[in-house]
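User: Some background: our group keeps a shared notebook of sequences we're curious about, and every so often someone picks one and asks for a predicted structure to add to the entry. Today it's my turn. The entry only has the sequence so far, pasted here. Could you supply the structure so I can complete it?
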Amino acid sequence: MPEFYTSADTFVQLAMRIGAITTLLLFIQVIMLLIGLGDFSINADIGDLDGDGLFDIAGLRLVSVRGILIFLAAASWTYLLIYSYGGSHTVSLIIGIIAGIITMGLFAYAMKKMLDLQEDGTVDINNSIGKVGTVYLRIPPNNSGKGKVNVLIQERFVEFDAITEEMSEISTGTEVEILKVINNVLVVK
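Assistant: Of course. Here's the predicted structure to add to the notebook entry:
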């Protein structure tokens, strides 16, 4: 063992172990995410540890396995830094805990902002109401059968089943207006 470790008191040795282990786990997690092996997380049934209730503060998931690792890493390294510059155990520990809480909060805030950038991507058929589409397969008259209509919604060109209440058939290639949606079927004219 290096002399600085063996000569340190038990509390400093514990902080070094916690800092090294949590930093290593976070480093492994980042590497696994970069090479596409997925999320390195522990799924445990520990009540609200996910941050879905009690620990969900202002929309931030503060307490999670990753959040705890970040807290422990930041708190232990800050403690060791302050202590190495002559701080007492108590002052170093208090500053380390504050630094851990701040780091955990900043990480939770950054994750929330990144998750806010996600989009669902699901096309909502109701967004087609009022749009103009083109008949792809003829639409029989008077709700007697279904045809197909192509329409551009949510920046996507999609095809939906369509019916019409008009008395005449709507032929392929005709432009139609979408009036409403009934059971995921467009009603057009």
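Suggested note for the entry: Strands lie at 56-57, 60-61, 132-137, 147-153, 156-164, 175-182, 185-188. The longest strand covers residues 156-164.
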